[in-house]
Amino acid sequence: MATLRDIRRHIRAIRNIEQITRAMQMVAAAKMRRAQARVAAGRPYAIAMEEMVADVAKIGKEYHHPFLVPREEGPGVLILVTSDRGLAGSLNVNTLRAAHSYMLRNFGPRYQVVVLGRKGLEFSRRMQLQVLHHRVGISDQVGPEELRPSMEAAVSAFLEGGAREVVLAYPRFRNLLSQVPTVKVLVPVPPRGEAEGPHTEGDYIYEPDARAVLERLMPAYVEAEMLHAVRELQASFYSAQMVAMRNASSAAGDVIRELSLTANKVRQAGITRELMEIIGGAEALQAARR
Amino acid sequence: MPIRVRVLASDQPLLEGEADFLTFRGADGDLGVLPQHAPLLTWLKPGEVMVRQGDGERHVFLEGGFLEVLPDLVTVAAERGQLSSELGLEAAEEALRGAQERASRDPESPVAAHLFEVAQARVAAAQLQRRRERD
């Protein structure tokens, strides 16, 4: 049986861990609120860019940008949006699993990746995927410029590398308790149903001309999607981390309570034993005197 | 019948509502759009988008972006932008000096040239805004 000293040492160690997890929980909570505000404020832009490109896919006829033409062959490119750090429950694992199974199904085990975040990079190395580009240390106040090299890597994999599809995977932030692994095809631009989108006769008027506008719009669309995915990740990450740390803190509390109980029992047993010894000794003395 | 307009920057929605008329700096020059305009797709030069509804005009400064006109909706999406009323002439001029310095240090860089162009447009927009506030 453990001695009282061992148990007390154990309690102290767990109390230290609890302090750390509690601090991490508070930090994550503060960052989560800011990240959540950013994801909400940025969402309309991402949706607008997506709709604009889908509109072009539907009514644009003058120039068929490569992003609008489905391909039969070529490798798959996965843009993997993960966090740098862990301690966030199963957040990254869920995203990686969903993305990997989609890619396996459609492209086999040797697909290409553009990786954001250390967790995704470790995964890609482990799976021996072809890493076209990777980026770690993305800031919380991420802006479009910061993602430009990553976007260019993905776009050129399609335009020059002959990829069949560019797929984006990230955890979508729904609420504090729910982050949904999301896998969506960015390129070629997925077609919309007949009923959706604008109903117009004829094509756009393009300025300066169809090709020039679309050659700018398409990369901007990929960038907008990536930017939004990173913001979704950040909100998801801090939520998941906050919940994970809250669970850890409360688990630590449980363990401490249990250990304290054991410690008290052991202490009580010690006291009882000592009393017994004293009484026993006293009685032995009295017996000897008589 | 007014048109629905939404102006969105990548970090925040800037303006949403109905308009009788709007103007902007398109790829081939300044343009105005009235209701029932034909579908249009253009990129934007750095500058102001003006949205008029009734007697009121609202101005938004955008660093570029794209504009799409559909029969019932005008969408303006730009990576960066802000309401003209929040520009501030002094801040804009300060930014222009910085951009100028960078462009002269690195005359070959297209990024520096672009930033300089944006900074110039921002100062112009801030000056217009100041004039409007005076009137």
CATH class of the largest domain in chain B: Mainly Beta
The arrangement of helices and strands of chain A along the chain is HEHEHEHEEEH
- The H/E string of chain B reads EEEEEEEEEEHH
Shape descriptor of chain A = elongated
Please bin the fraction of helical residues of chain B. Answer: 25-40%
- Percent strand of chain A equals 5-15%
Number of helices of chain A: 5
At CATH level 3, the topology of the largest domain in chain B is ATP Synthase, domain 1
Distance between the termini of chain A: 39 Å
Work out the oligomeric state of the chains in this entry: heterodimer
Give a quick set of tags describing it.
A: 290 residues, alpha/beta, Helix Hairpins, Pyruvate Kinase, Chain: A, domain 1, 5-stranded mixed β-sheet, 5 helices, B: 135 residues, alpha+beta, ATP Synthase, domain 1, 2 helices, 31% helix
